[in-house]
Amino acid sequence: MAVMSYAQAAALALAHAMEADPRVVVLGEDIGRGGIFGQYQGLQQRFGTDRVIDTPISEATILGAGVGMALAGLRPVVEMRVVDFALCAMDEIVNQAAKNRFMFGGQGRVPLVMRMPVGIWDSSAAQHSQSLESWFAHVPGLVVVCPATPQDNYSLLRAALDCGDPVVYLEHKTLWGLQGEVDVQAREQLGSARTVRPGRHLTLVSWSRQVHACAQACEALAAQGIAAELIDLRSIWPWDRAAVLASCARTGHLLVVHEAVQAAGFGAEIAAAAAEATGCRVRRLGAPRIPVGYSPVLEAQARIQAADIAAAARGMLEQTR
Amino acid sequence: MARIRAFENAAEIASQGGVSAYGSSAGAGARVRGPLHLSTGQEAVPAGVCAHLRTDDYLTSTHRGHGHTLAKGADLARMMAELFGKASGSNAGKGGSMHIADFSVGMLGANGVVAAGLPIAVGAAHAQKLQGRDAITACFFGDGAINRGPFLESLNWAQVYGLPLLFVCEDNRWSATTASGPMTAGEGASARADSLGIAGEQVDGNDVLAVDEAAGRLVREVRARRQPRLLHAITYRVKGHVSVDAAAYRDPRELQQALQADPLARARSRFLAQGGDAAVLDAIDREAQEEVARALAAADAAPWPAPEAAFTDVQTTGAGLWR
Ligand SMILES: Cc1ncc(C[n+]2csc(CCOP(=O)(O)OP(=O)(O)O)c2C)c(N)n1
């Protein structure tokens, strides 16, 4: 196993997939030089400009062309730079990529991976810091993946490329430099959660960057005698109901944590499903419903910190004692 | 031009000292945080265009909007405070460099989304038409923006409805880390405007008098005839895409050549060649430096926004229900 960054793991996953399958092509802005975060580093030198295609600033066409390439037998990866700009291609994502297979009676399929980084990015303000995963989870036809570690960014990107249906692949804008061990033999199934740490007092469910904040919160809770079980969902559609429900049935308490705005966030879906199925107590922790501000003071209002998570968990348990 | 240069030089220095987060923003610790897109070397375009705009004319801008905003007459000190994220900033600390705006002088905002300012300018000009006003709208966008759909949609709309709108393509040759020439088919902005029947004109965007002359003519036409026009100004992006970008992907000779055509130096030597007094220019520079120094001190001293301000100006109906 080698230690590498989250960005390097993604580049390696693409390199391996491109070696294994000549149908895999990549297209997007500024990717020839490695992408703005190095997540395509070395690929154009290695696979040439026909397979790692620099495009004009044309999000709708990048995405739409990806759909057309997929229908014509390729396995494209399209780069949206950040999720905020994927909104410039929303018709292509929601009305075209997601619906094609169904609408035409299964005549065509769209094996397309759409990379669109999410999350708060230091002082980048309202148009560069959004977490919009629940928008995509709401659309039938889309798979939605949120890797939190270098290992998962390798394994899940490979799985997304093998998926055969359109995948919205959401890396976090602040995780690119995160280092970790990567086993390139490991294979993952989309829709399987990872239990980060076991526990018996309550279940914490999260994904993407917030998994790391939750892990910190678990340490603080453990010091106070609270054993929280932490589940990294890894993909929010499909999401691992079995793992989450089994844990909630054991602990009787569920706290879902995400960086996205809490109102109408995906935490609501998980909380409702868990309460319906197990009768457990539920709580959500997400951002207030405000655009992310530029000033660090304002930005902080939209951030979920480990201390907030630990406080929410403690508050929840105290209510039932 | 001197004020824009002084403002951006100071902002660049104030953006240093932070730890950059993988390439795009100056990190925590810097006085100016977040992505800072400088327009160094491009000052002749906003200066030459905005000289012909009135305060009640509208302007929309790009992510590289300091020069446009200053040239439109915005308050420099409030802009600096905004870059510092302070409560006294023009956007109350909510927007920063990339979203700098000053509605009090008709500057309707810089934008973080490439080409997003064009349809907004169309709407502003359409409103001017519906309201029977004699004001006009100007709209700056980059050479990369002309490959997004909103460019075509906006030009078509402006022509179909006969809107008083000056489109200004500020062509600095680069789009982030990619040269825009090889990414653009045909002759670019003015040729595309021609195909829709919008009279377009190309100009040396580093020659402030040439920009001034062409923009003056086009603005007069837009104002009098209530029709759109397009100005394609060719200039050069001297700095990297954002302040933390060293632009290592660029041939240094290209930059060296471009520096020979620096718009401030050119304007200065022309002024002197025509018998102008160097002391006049020195005084302009000194005044700009002093104004910027005062703005920096004020921005440093200004208070942070109250945390609760994050919850204001979101919306009125139903606000505050979900904290
Ligand atoms: C819709 C959209 N796509 C991509 C980006 C990322 N981006 C920001 S600026 C930029 C380059 C824009 O080039 P150009 O329009 O020529 O303006 P310049 O930066 O050269 O002034 C890119 C790709 C964005 N902000 N918005």
Cα-based radius of gyration of chain B, to the nearest Å = 20 Å
Task: Characterize the largest beta sheet of chain A: strand count, sense, and whether it forms a barrel.
Answer: 7 strands, mixed
Strand content of chain B: 5-15%
The overall pLDDT average of chain A reads 97
Shape of chain A: globular
Number of strands of chain B: 7
Q: How far is the first residue's CA from the last residue's CA of chain A? A: 45 Å
Following the backbone from N to C, one meets helices and strands of chain B in this order, namely HHEHHHEHEEEHEHEHHH
* H and E order of chain A: EHEHEHEHHHEHEHEEEEHEEHEHEHH
Q: Which spans of chain B have pLDDT < 50 for at least 5 consecutive residues? A: none
Small molecules held by this entry: thiamine diphosphate
The greatest interface here is: A-B, 46 and 50 residues
- How many domains make up the coordinates of chain A? 2
The gross shape of chain B turns out to be: globular
Oligomeric state of this protein: heterodimer
Give the overall average pLDDT of chain B: 95
Radius of gyration of chain A: 19 Å
Question: How big a fraction of the residues of chain A is strand?
Answer: 15-25%
Number of strands of chain A: 14
Measure the end-to-end span of chain B: 45 Å
- Low-confidence blocks of residues of chain A: none
Explained architecture:
The complex is a heterodimer of chains A (321) and B (323). Chain A is α/β, with parallel strands linked by helices and 321 residues long. Chain A has two domains: 2-182, 3-Layer(aba) Sandwich (Rossmann fold); 194-319, 3-Layer(aba) Sandwich (Rossmann fold). Chain A has 13 helices and 14 strands. Chain A has helices spanning 6-20, 43-47, 59-71, 83-86, 90-97, 100-103, 133-137, 150-162, 210-223, 241-251, 266-278, 296-300, 306-320; strands spanning 2-5, 24-28, 52-54, 75-79, 113-115, 143-145, 167-169, 179-182, 194-197, 202-206, 228-232, 235-237, 253-261, 281-287. In chain A, the strands form three sheets. In chain A, strands 3-2-4-5-7-6-12 form a seven-stranded mixed sheet, sandwiched between helices. In chain A, helix 9 links the parallel strand 10 and strand 11 (228-232). In chain A, helix 10 (241-251) crosses helix 11. The longest helix of chain A is centred in the N-terminal third of the chain and has 15 residues, at 6-20. Chain A is globular and about 60 Å long. Chain B has 323 residues and is an alpha/beta fold. Helices cover 40% and strands 10% of the residues of chain B. Chain B has eleven helices and seven strands. In chain B, the strands form two sheets. In chain B, strands 1-2-3-7-6 form a five-stranded parallel sheet, with helices on both faces. In chain B, strands 4-5 form a two-stranded antiparallel sheet. In chain B, helix 1 (2-14) runs parallel beside helix 11, helix 2 packs parallel to helix 8 (208-225) and helix 4 packs across helix 11. Chain B is globular, with a radius of gyration of 20 Å. The model of chain B has no long low-confidence stretch (mean pLDDT 95). Chains A and B meet through helix 3 and helix 12 of A and loops of B. The structure holds thiamine diphosphate. Thiamine diphosphate (TPP) sits between chains B (62-64, 112-114, 142-145, 172, 174-176, 180, 237) and A (29, 57, 59, 81, 85, 88). Thiamine diphosphate sits between chains B (62-64, 112-114, 142-145, 172, 174-176, 180, 237) and A (29, 57, 59, 81, 85, 88).
